[in-house]
Amino acid sequence: MDTHVIAAGLPALGWAIHGGTLLRRLATARRDPLTGLHTRAGWTARAEHLMAKHPGALVLLVDLDDFKAVNDTHGHAAGDAVLTATALRLATWCGGHGFAARLGGDEFAAIVTSPGRTPGLPTLRTTLDQPVTHHGIVLPVSASVGHCHRADLPVPTLTDALSAADTAMYTAKGHGRRNTR
Questions:
Q1: pTM of the model
Q2: pLDDT of residue 15
Q3: If pLDDT is split at 50, 70 and 90, which confidence band does 174 have?
Q4: Catalytic annotation on 106?
């Protein structure tokens, strides 16, 4: 083989490998390493696209109630078990009709394009409120859920939907834990 061809191809091969590495790092950065869900940045771009495309979209915010007590009482590994279980439960509830994200700490978000194809919000609340067993210890879990239908917004933007869902979530918390608004 001609050494000039090899010499010319090596930089191209190096750039291809470098580009592939950067793409993998970018994909990893958009996923929460603990739960596997999208991060805020990864979720926001896709959610904005779905909001614009689906008039029936539903945006949810989920906040775990008294999560700090789990960490303080049982340790961070127990808290991680609760976060992982919550992520799986929320993603499973969304099914193929939406996707979920971990926004940070004990706060999650989801967007569903066809809410009627999910098991419904009461089922989500019941599912999220199931205890988690970690190393033989049953950990209580409760969550407050706020939601907003795209159709209920005068201007259907993700920012407005998240704001409305956030307001609804804190209203639910004000009516006691384990509520949905």
A1: 0.81
A2: 56
A3: confident
A4: yes
